[in-house]
Amino acid sequence: MHGRVKVKSTAQQEEEKRKGREKKLKVYLTVRDAIFSKRSNGELDEEALQFTQQLLSSNPDFATLWNYRREILLHLETVKEEDEIQKLYEAELFFIETCLKMNPKSYGSWHHRGWVSSRLPRPDWARELSLCDRCLSLDDRNFHCWDYRRLVVKASGVPVDQELQFTDRLIGSNFSNYSSWHYRSTLLPLLHPEPGSEPASPCRKQNNTHTSPTASPQTHSHRVCEEQLLKEYELVQNAFFTDPNDQSAWFYYRWLLGRAEREELISCVYVSREGERVAVAFSKPVNALTEGLMLVLDGQQQQRVEWRSAHPRFRHSPVWLCELPPGSVSDINNEHNLTVHWMEKHTHRDCALYTGRPESWCRDSATDQELFRSELSVEKTSVLQSELQSCTQLLELEPQNKWCLLTIVLLMRALDPLGHEKETLAHFQTLKEVDPMRSSYYSDLCSKFMIENTILKMEYAEVRVFSLSDKNLSTLCHLDQLLLVTHINLSSNQLVRFPPQFSMLQCLEVLEADDNAIGNLEGLYHLPKLEEVSLKNNQISKLSDLEPLASCPRLTRLDLRGNPVTKTANIEAELAQLLPSVTDLLL
Amino acid sequence: MAADNLPSEFDVVIVGTLTESVIAAACSRVGQRVLHLDRNYYAGNWASFTLNGLLSWIEEYKAQQEKSPDDQTDVEQEWREKIEEGEEVLTLNSVDSTISNLEVFTYAEEPEEEEEVKATSVGSVLIDSLAAEAKENSSSSTEAQNSSGPDDTTPDKDDDEEHQHQEPENEQTPETQEEPENEPQPEPVPEVKKKITYAKLIKEGRRFNIDLVSKLLYSRGLLVDLLIKSNVSRYAEFKNLSRILTCRNGKIEQVPCSRADVFGSKQLSMVEKRMLMKFLTFCLDFEQHPEEFQFSQKPFWDYLRSRSLTENLQHFVFSSIAMVDQETLTEEGLRATQHFLRCLGRYGNTPFLFPLYGLGEIPQCFCMCAVFGGIYCLRHSVQCLVVDKESGKAVIDTHGQRISCSHLVVEDGYIRDEQRTRSVNISLVTVPPLDSSSPAVRMVELSSSSMTCMPGTLVHLTCSSVGSAREDLEPVISKLFYVPSSPGEEPAPCEEEQKPVTLWIMFFNMRDSSGLDPSCYTLPTNVHVCTGPDASLGNDYSITLQAESVFRQLLPDEEFCPPAPNPEDIIYDGDGTQTEGAAFQEAGDALGTSAAGEEEEEEPQENDQSEESSEPAASSESAAQ
């Protein structure tokens, strides 16, 4: 064909490329060997710098070469004038830039850049910042660059508000960016601290918020003043109304709503004449074996008591137990005063055991609502209300959105757990349907909320009976709150086990858990008062599954009908041997 | 190249510009002997002019208007003799008949019927800035396209539609422009500095690149794909449009179209944000949800109203995203929306690219491909076609030379109207009509960073025509800009000072023949007609589709615009190719380095990576040691 430009054939090109590559490889290996031999000879000269530069510019991930370069540079620092050193390091920065163009996510290059910047006699931080900005504009999720940028900001003292504007900009161009949101969460408390948490807050307000009764047990050093919080809510709502399926905004929202941390203190002291036992409950798991826990009985420090956790598997536990010296409280006609000191937190709790009473306790009054609400720590109900409204609005548009559903559930919990119980359950149902992959997670979360609600109801009724049957419970939690419960009914749920924490129910006398799928009784351990256990229609299949029950001294009645274990040969004799105290056995 | 040097035989003779230049490039790329002629200047109706160039173009237009059609007859005698027996002659238009209703207004200072402006800006802030920098001028040119090619002398007979293009240059239309140089400068500046005089405009004339048609490139459009595929993109630079605006209730607003826009928008409520995103997400793959649009036989506008969208959102989608008109059917509207959305994010936050230095760059880029052996000849046209029974054999050019060819590709404007049998109107909407009878107007605002004007702003207004360009566009102009009643006049202090001041306006109508069916021409089969610019915003139809289909007719077995080879892959052996090859290399070197198109970056990068990928593999071994 005439007139056509002749072009090399593909095979020709391939061959040329192959040859080219071979040649390059040869050069590469030669240089590498030269570098290694120089290094082993301890040569720290500029020629070595040149050689390593040659290799690193094509392969910036060769960590050994960067190390060698640092050795050389450190050596040159000792023999050169400051101006020369400055020039040397500036050249180094320029070189690293070319490496970053080659691989913008090279660990070696970024690390070396950080190192060089810190050695530079007269660093130009503004330039470094603009380099970061350029990199982030190309890839706003390059975490190497984020890391380096934080280093630069710290070293150069960029004002916090400027950094906040920086995150504004990045979020504005693409809000699907965890790094930016997270960076915000670290900047805001510095720039707009919550009044009272730190002095000189730029948006201090008069203290007209209701003083929360939980203010003391909650510590949050990461809180942000309300005025700014409201702005942040708006910002993040813009994001999740724009794209409700983007997780990053929802996570930030959860952070804004807050997560309270409870202060460590003694929430309950219980003493019983029978068995002369003391049980102490803490607001969070502690390790009492550090000798931080001290018992004073009628003014006398009890040196010899031995504390143990509710279950031997726990080194940290919210409930600790001990036996008093024999005879110290057994006489029902004596009155006793008990004080438990928790030295680590300089806190204590008193408990009086009056005459004629077989047992006594002292605990935090029934403001338990605050206890469970504290999961979200936003103080003002009005704020929560308006957030709930926005989310509900979004839900109308996106009835299937799991993030929105879950957030609504959390807000409802924080506002009024009992009042919203029905809606909460309905939302959980929807959640399981729209997100079947996580249905077990939702079941567990729902169980937790149901247990909290039942505890609240029990507290209001001032009874020691905990009844939660037929509620699809899949797990048990908050068991430390059930320290004083005597009767518990968990029938017709989906429980599979009594976890070790169940042994915190130190006052339990009657346990009903029919029609579950329980196969593990680990938690029925050393329950001193347990008399009756009904486990009809469960999944107990082996005799050994029942072993924990042997540690409950008062157990007299046991119902095992409908369990596979009843089919075991010779079961009655075996059980009689295992559980001699049981007189009323139903199989 | 002088006419007498032209060889007298070619495979393909091409007359006309943009689409034609693509065909020329494609043909010469695969080794056809191509002669590419153009009547007077590069790019025809696609051209971009400097201000001075535009002024001469106007002069030429006026001169043409006066010229009587009889002039041709003398000349005809000259070439009559070149016709052989058994051949007939089809005469081609020697003058351009597509432009009509040209009017020019100057508002800049030294009157003398020149043009000039002083500008004020929209926001009061901007006023200062404009004033300070004295950078406004506006010109508006309108082009109407008369569908039935009228004689030049009777431009008004149209019931056709027109397109108006206006290029006022005013500062920024609304709110702040993206260009930092236009940022407000706080201190008020003395009056004197505010003015831009006509003399200054003329002096700076070379900084203008005023397009005759105002178009943008959809970043996933066929033309962009073609530019990339053929490597032609290496000859040009592009800029992503920075924002899309709409005019509603007299206010200019930014159209939220990308995710980031929606997130950042202050005009939308939270709920609207959700609605809009939901609708746009649906549009992206609307084919997957047939249940959502049973309306397909109904107009898109009705469909939008049936969706849960607020009026605000309907407006945004209808006029600024889909950019369709009231008659458009649902499916077409959805498709237009989808195309817009798919183009988002490829090169930036808006779906459009604009070639730096104006649209005229595009045909030029394709003409660069002439290095593959085509011959390009300006100010040289064809007078008539020599027809032998059923097919054309040769053309006779304006210098009387007979040139034989096996195919002729010719732009619509060269075809005399009597050869045309039918025409269709196209219309397009971007800025909603001011009242129900007037057409919607599309406005493209170009700042100096687009390399099309001096500091200040160049604005093109386009609409399908109802009357003359001036009648159609003047209301919009007076709504958005301040038009001084006499040159150099100050705007009234109150509301007028919110608006940018115009410096210079040009109106004209340009014929839109894009709706014509090629089969309506009674022409020999080896003559192919390309239409001129159409009214739509993108270039896809007019350039790529048409060029490719003509190319397929010419050379059904050849690849359309394969990538140009890398200079180092070209083999130089024979004498003939040697020189061409060398020329190519020079051109490639010169252009390739200076003009790195945005798109181009994609490709080289890929190459780099694939080349490098072998190396780290080799070196990771050594790193392990």
TrEMBL record, chain B:
It holds the Pfam family GDI. Residues 137-152, 615-625 have a biased composition (Low complexity). The keyword Cytoplasm applies. GO terms for cellular component: cytosol; nucleus; Rab-protein geranylgeranyltransferase complex. Its main location: cytoplasm. Residues 169-184, 597-614 have a biased composition (Acidic residues). Keywords: Cytoplasm, GTPase activation. PANTHER family: CHM, RAB ESCORT PROTEIN 1, RAB GDP-DISSOCIATION INHIBITOR. This is Rab proteins geranylgeranyltransferase component A. It comes from Astyanax mexicanus. The lineage of its organism: Eukaryota, Metazoa, Chordata, Craniata, Vertebrata.
